[in-house]
Specification:
With about 525 residues, the protein is mainly beta. The protein is built from 2 helices and 31 strands. The chain has a 24-stranded antiparallel beta barrel. Strands 6-7 form a two-stranded antiparallel sheet. Strands 19-20 form a two-stranded antiparallel sheet. The chain is globular. About 25% of the residues are buried.
Length: about 525
Amino acid sequence: MDAQYYFKDSLIGAPEVPQKLLSNGFANFEYEKGNFSAGIRYESYLDPILGYDTRYQGSGIPYRYLRYNIGDLDVTAGTFYEQFGSGIILRTYEERGLGYDNAIEGFRVKYVPIRGLTVKGLIGRQRNFFSTSEGLVRAADVEWNLNESCDSMAGNKTQWIIGGSFVSKFQKDDDPVFNLPENVGAGAGRISMNSEGWTASAEYAYKINDPSGTNGYIFKDGQALLFNLSYTKKGFGAIFGVKRIDNMGFRSDRDATGNSLMINYLPALTKNHTYSLAALYPYASQPNGEIGLQLELFYNFKPGSTFGGEYGTDVNINYSRAQSIEKTLIDTVGNPEAIDLGYTSGFLMFGKEVYFEDFNIEITKKLSKKWRMHLLYMYLHYNKSVVEGRASEPTVYAHIAALELGYKVTSKKNIRTEIQHLYTKHDKQSWAVLLLEYSIAPNWFIAGFDQYNYGNDISAQRIHYFTGTLGYTRKTNRITIGYGRQRAGIFCVGGVCRNVPASNGFLMSITSSF
């Protein structure tokens, strides 16, 4: 359970909450015996914490399932999560911090007819808060591990997996203006290879015309391409990824908004930062068109080397970028029927507008038996008007630095501090952060955190966002209480985001399992 007691704070724009206390809670109950398993999840939002969709209002059991597995055959009736390949045409999952849950309620069957070959089929409706979507989802997937199926390849160092998926949604057309397709299909093919430190994977998806609120009700087909390549050996690693997305919003309800009823998942291909200022401007995937890439290098300087020192040094370099695709609006002169197609786009043609750019270097080093250090530098280019969908917002160019120091007082007591700084001339301008945390393993920790917007042009808004937190852990039970101010902003996980409003108040979180 997470609960928060709110105070009005006009200085930071925190609204007055009539109920004063808001809470999100859930409890999972699972049972297993032999080949049979079952479970339910009770959820209660009384009322939902600020920043979560208000349609979560109330209590109920939106997740329940019965499952039976007899070796080669696995059958689920009820609610379930599923992913085909990388998820670019189907991924259902839960991310509680975002208030995101697009589970499917219906039937799912998995079958292994021969060794190495897995076939999946499902039908159902997606979760829509405490109900289900109007649209019906039907899907099938085949994945073939060649090395497992072919005895001649069983001992090969190179492993090959190929797969294919098809997803179809049905939604009745009640629109008085448009003649909308009721059945919309998407197909994808994928291949992956793993050999002596090398891993490569590629997936291509195609979706037929799917006019929706996401794309402005145009009748253009959609495409997506995702490619990843990595190489690792002791002390070194390199990862490269590239993607192209064009009109790939895919929902079981064409009129849905926000994060609800998304059938597929479009990865951001950007680094998920843990430092608060590095995560101040996170990237959200753009389903209507983007080209993105990411390159990451890791190297460990061994102990005793020039840069490794006595204990060794880890260096991580990461670069990611996302920008528009080239779009040519269709000339409708003499061809009025083409107006609903929107535009054409060359498959690998880059547009001119940069949406996001992040270059960062991280250094981790043990300084002595008691001291550890983590250092971050980051350059950021953030197109706020595109990423946040708000016209006329400034593009943010920022330099960010963070220093984290850890001191081991005793074998069970540790002190950790973070010093962060963000410099920019845009948006609310520069920020500084100071964090101090003291922990006593395995039970207690106490932390103080101050985020200061000292560079704001408006002197009255040069505000300290202070938070104090106390936590206690015992076995599988954890209790956290705190008080503080929360700045307004965007919170993202893997390219899926939600707006977080400003707030001031006490908070409590309880997690327990048995």
